Amino acid sequence: MKAKALNHKMFIVLSPVRSDYKAAVLARNPQVFERLFDLLNQFELGYRPTVIDFFNDNQIEDAHFADYDHLLPTGDGVAYISKRIEQIVRES
Prior knowledge:
mainly alpha; two-stranded parallel sheet
């Protein structure tokens, strides 16, 4: 694949959500991201993209959210996610 030949890396970020929203999503579809992973397996990328999963990250708390799926723009959640993404990208 051209991306691999150019040494490009793919990152997929699963967004965080507040616990009540997550519970509602999982009640309707317990394997909410299963189709995504099925699709990734179908592509012959020659490598596995890095999935950064904030949907299931226990470091993100309801207090970090302005509403059910938007973090407070100046809150600790935004700082945590930014630092975590930077760390993962640098280490890959």
